């Protein structure tokens, strides 16, 4: 039996074991960098960052809080960011005085994260760093400094492990490259 995602999948880019091993390393690095920190807040950017946050958090051995924020860019096609970003759901916590680590699935143009960073900086966190599972450096349009990167990837549309293909397949345990021809066929 063919699995539902298979017709959209061109190749598995990062398999489950590779993802998990890298996330464990990132967790160790974050734990060491924030050793002794008493008010670390992991801020997950919804929805794509949710799988990553949940695995990363379990590898961070410094006590920390978690919260969520949803942001989206509008005005462009579904698979491309525009310069206009809005906050769809703000976090509940006050970030003032906290050490905030933003956890994001992927950085593409950089518009989403740069808007999120600007918004958070105005609220005076004690520190603000970024952690992205995937980075498409060749697509960058705004300069942002990313402190932790899981994997640098080529300019291909990917899905799975939090990333969606028209809102589906976020649950896959691996990151795959999408066959966009199969999608537009429908
Ligand atoms: P940016 O604002 O262009 O950096 O776009 C970042 C957002 O676009 C990410 O948080 C994702 O939600 C989405 N995105 C960018 N590239 C991909 C991809 O290859 N697959 C799925 N979502 C993507
Ligand atoms: Mg996202």
Characterization of this structure:
By secondary structure, the protein is of the alpha/beta class. The protein has one domain: Rossmann fold (3-Layer(aba) Sandwich). It has four helices and nine strands; from the N terminus they run E-H-E-H-E-E-E-H-E-E-E-E-H. The strands form two sheets. The protein has a six-stranded mixed beta sheet with strand order 4-3-2-5-6-7, with helices on both faces. Strand 5 (99-107), helix 3 and strand 6 (127-135) form a beta-alpha-beta unit. Helix 1 packs across helix 2 (50-57). The longest helix has 18 residues, at 16-33. The model has no long low-confidence stretch (mean pLDDT 93). The structure holds inosinic acid (IMP) and magnesium ion. Inosinic acid binds at residues 48, 73, 81, 104-112, 157-159, 163.
Give the key terms:
186 residues; alpha/beta; Rossmann fold; 6-stranded mixed sheet; 3-stranded antiparallel sheet; 4 helices; 32% strand; binds inosinic acid; binds magnesium ion
Specify the biggest β-sheet.
Answer: 6 strands, mixed
Global Rg: 16 Å
> What order do the strands of the largest sheet run in, or round the barrel if closed?
4-3-2-5-6-7
Bound molecules: inosinic acid, magnesium ion
The total tally of domains equals: 1
Beta-strand residue fraction:
25-35%
List the helices and strands in order: EHEHEEEHEEEEH
The counted number of beta strands is 9
**What structural class should be given to the helix and strand makeup?**
alpha/beta
Class in CATH? Answer: Alpha Beta
Calculate the mean pLDDT score and round it.
93
């Amino acid at each position: 039996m063919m699995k539902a995602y298979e017709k959209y999948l061109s190749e598995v880019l990062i398999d489950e074991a590779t993802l998990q091993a890298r996330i464990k390393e990132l967790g160790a690095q974050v734990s060491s960098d924030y050793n002794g920190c008493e008010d670390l807040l992991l801020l997950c950017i919804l929805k794509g960052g949710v799988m990553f946050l949940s695995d990363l958090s379990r590898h961070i051995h410094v006590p920390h809080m978690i919260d969520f924020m949803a942001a989206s860019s509008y005005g462009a096609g579904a698979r491309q960011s525009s310069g206009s970003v809005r906050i769809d759901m703000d976090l509940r916590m006050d970030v003032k005085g906290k050490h905030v680590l933003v956890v994001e699935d992927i950085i593409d143009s950089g518009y989403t994260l740069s808007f999120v960073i600007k918004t958070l900086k105005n609220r005076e966190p004690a520190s603000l760093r970024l952690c992205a599972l995937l980075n498409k450096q060749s697509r960058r349009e705004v300069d942002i400094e990313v402190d932790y990167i899981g994997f640098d990837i080529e300019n291909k549309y990917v899905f799975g492990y939090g990333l969606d293909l028209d809102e589906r397949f976020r649950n896959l345990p691996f990151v795959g490259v999408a066959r966009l021809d199969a999608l537009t066929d429908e």
